[in-house]
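Sample pair:
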Amino acid sequence: MIVRIMGEGQVKLDDSHFIELNKLDDELLEEMESGDGDGFRRTLAALLEAVRRLGTPLPDDSLEPSELILPTDDATLDEVREMLSDDGLIPG
């Protein structure tokens, strides 16, 4: 799966990593719903770090269609709320 982190670029992730990423996504969703700004910021950073660590960066000149788009590290709670589906940022 190709994942884009806004403002950074794209990474290719193996589907086997989505169990770990979905746990962080569920945690992020709970923190957003409860208004836990500090927890939201911490979990968003952990989610993006996991994508960077587990993924393989694509070259900057590569323009693959992204199956998933994640916000930047400095995205606000409201900005991320606009990106959410019922499943969170990561479907499944």
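The chain has three helices and four strands.
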